[in-house]
Amino acid sequence: MLSRVVFAAAATAAPCLKNAAVLGPGVLQATRAFHTGQPCLTPVPPLPEYGGKVRLGLIPEEFFQYLYPKTGVTGPYMLGTGLSLYCLSKEIYVITPETFSTIAVVGLMVYVIKKYGASIGEFIDKLNEQKIAQLEEVKQASIKQIQDAIDGEKAQQALVQKRHYLFDVQRNNIAMALEVTYRERLHRVYKEVKNRLDYHISMQDMIRRKEQEHMIDWVEKQVVQSISAQQEKETITKCIQDLKLLAKKAQAQPVM
Amino acid sequence: MASLVPLKEKKLMEVKLGELPSWILMRDFTPKGIAGAFQRGYDRYYNKYINVRKGSISGVNMILAAYVLFSYCISYKELRSEEA
């Protein structure tokens, strides 16, 4: 009775259980014992493509390989036949009415699996591929994000190397301002000194001019004083005679 | 003597027949050891037949067949007395 329930349950659950739980708890992870030792850095092996081979859907291939050297190819089958006949004949397996329903259910299951197994498998494989692709996407996105963060950090670090430009510019500005004030003050000093020197020069010029004028005046006064009255009369008569001569000469010439 | 692997670390297939009782007695029978053994068996079966890209029905089928056999063994006595 229990076997029939099991088989019925398997018939309904078979399609979705066929390729279920691909990403279950069996995925290996890097073991880490709370940072006490070196973390195991071997890369996670990829999912195997196919499971272990199984013959008749029940018996793993390893059993057949184990018996092959001693009994050849037909050994395990003979063993199976012999065992089942022994169980039947010795009534270790009792034939009850359930046996026939078991045979019918098993036959039906085998027929269904043989006919629709491949297509259902493909469908579920597609679902699995979608799941795996989604996770891969997340992984790639995470990797890309971290890579971008690393690049950003590197750029910042590179900027730090170029800080000195800023300071050089400031230093240049300050040096120029100092130079400008220095030259300004130099110019002012020059102007002030020139001012004072000009003052002295103009004073000297003025004094010399005054002396010249004074001397000229004094000489004139002396000369005028020296001319006595009699000399003056003589000079005047001489001038009148000269003028008369000149007048005669002048009259004579245009007539000729 | 250094080339011989100590008895405790041999796997079952490498243990010779005479050493079998001492090997069995040396196994870890604490609750933690037993739980670890179950976990190891589960992981081995799981990784071989179910945790693959293209699994087949045999992964589940073998478990169900083993359950059928086990339940038959449990109810064998009842079947014998019922039939007689």
TrEMBL record, chain A:
Instruction: Give the matching InterPro entries.
Output: ATP_synth_Bsub_B/MI25 (IPR008688), ATP_synth_F0_suB (IPR013837)
Q: Which keywords does the record carry?
A: Acetylation, CF(0), Hydrogen ion transport, Ion transport, Membrane, Mitochondrion, Mitochondrion inner membrane, Transit peptide, Transport
Q: One MF term in GO for this entry? A: proton-transporting ATP synthase activity, rotational mechanism
The main place the protein resides is mitochondrion
Q: Which domain of life is it from?
A: Eukaryota
Position of the signal peptide: none
One Pfam family for this entry, by name?
Mt_ATP-synt_B
Please state where this protein is localized. Answer: Mitochondrion; Mitochondrion inner membrane
A GO CC term assigned to this protein in UniProt:
mitochondrial inner membrane
On subunit structure and binding partners, the annotation says: Component of the ATP synthase complex composed at least of ATP5F1A/subunit alpha, ATP5F1B/subunit beta, ATP5MC1/subunit c (homooctomer), MT-ATP6/subunit a, MT-ATP8/subunit 8, ATP5ME/subunit e, ATP5MF/subunit f, ATP5MG/subunit g, ATP5MK/subunit k, ATP5MJ/subunit j, ATP5F1C/subunit gamma, ATP5F1D/subunit delta, ATP5F1E/subunit epsilon, ATP5PF/subunit F6, ATP5PB/subunit b, ATP5PD/subunit d, ATP5PO/subunit OSCP.
| Purpose of the protein | Subunit b, of the mitochondrial membrane ATP synthase complex (F(1)F(0) ATP synthase or Complex V) that produces ATP from ADP in the presence of a proton gradient across the membrane which is generated by electron transport complexes of the respiratory chain. ATP synthase complex consist of a soluble F(1) head domain - the catalytic core - and a membrane F(1) domain - the membrane proton channel. These two domains are linked by a central stalk rotating inside the F(1) region and a stationary peripheral stalk.
Please state which protein family the record places this protein in.
Answer: Belongs to the eukaryotic ATPase B chain family.
Report the protein name in the record: ATP synthase subunit b
Taxonomic classification, please? Answer: Eukaryota, Metazoa, Chordata, Craniata, Vertebrata
User: Source gene?
Assistant: Atp5pb
